[in-house]
Design brief:
CATH architecture of the largest domain: Orthogonal Bundle
Bound molecules: heme C
Distance between the termini: 147 Å
Structural class: mainly alpha
Number of domains: 2
Mean pLDDT: 87
Number of strands: 0
Strand content: under 5%
CATH class of the largest domain: Mainly Alpha
Radius of gyration: 48 Å
Order of helices and strands: HHHHHH
Largest sheet: none
């Protein structure tokens, strides 16, 4: 009987020691785990904050963005036509020297130009814009406007006096 009691109290003591040991072990593991994860958690928090700030900015951004350059560029191109002198740079290939029988743009061609001018200024404009014989329409540069061609003809008549 006394042997059984001894055994019981030995068991009780062992049992208590084991419970204590397991409790200490559990607490130790919890402390270690929270120490190990605290750095990772801080990084995750930081990233989450960044991402949510970014996505808010994206969601409230305006749908189309306008910059001054995209609006102003085409207007600037259309607003500045070439002067007669600037256009003549491409006419001079024939009209400087009389290539292909072109009337020469200098005093030497004055008589030729006077004869042509007798047809009327509008006819000269028309032939310069639409071409005649070896004279190509717009001197071969279709990107020039009618007004730019007319300015070039005025410039040629001025120089051929
Ligand atoms: C490839 C050569 C060539 C180029 C480039 C050229 N011309 Fe001529 N041009 C001629 C020839 C050739 C004639 C004469 C045509 C004829 O009367 O048979 C002529 C004639 C003219 C005449 C007189 C038309 C008439 O009715 O008598 C005008 C104005 C004229 N050119 C303007 C221009 C202008 C402006 C340019 C540039 C934008 C230009 N030409 C570029 C060859 C050229």
């Amino acid at each position: 009987m006394s042997e059984t009691q001894m055994n019981d109290s030995t068991f009780s003591r062992l049992f208590i020691i084991m419970i204590l040991a397991m409790t200490i072990l559990t607490i130790t593991i919890m402390v270690l785990a929270s120490l190990a994860s605290s750095g990772v958690n801080a990084k995750l928090d930081e990233r989450y904050e960044q991402e949510s700030t970014q996505s808010i900015a994206q969601r409230i951004a305006p749908v189309g963005t306008f910059s001054a350059e995209t609006v102003a560029a085409p207007v600037a191109v259309a607003a500045v036509p070439l002067t007669g002198e600037e256009v003549y740079v491409s006419c001079g290939a024939c009209h400087d020297s009389g290539t292909l029988g072109a009337p020469i743009v200098s005093a030497a061609g004055a008589a030729d130009w006077n004869t042509r001018l007798a047809q009327g200024l509008d006819t000269l404009y028309n032939h310069a814009i639409n071409g005649i014989n070896n004279m190509p329409a717009k001197g071969g540069n279709a990107s020039l406007s009618d007004d730019e061609i007319k300015a070039a003809v005025d410039y040629m008549l001025e120089r051929a006096k």
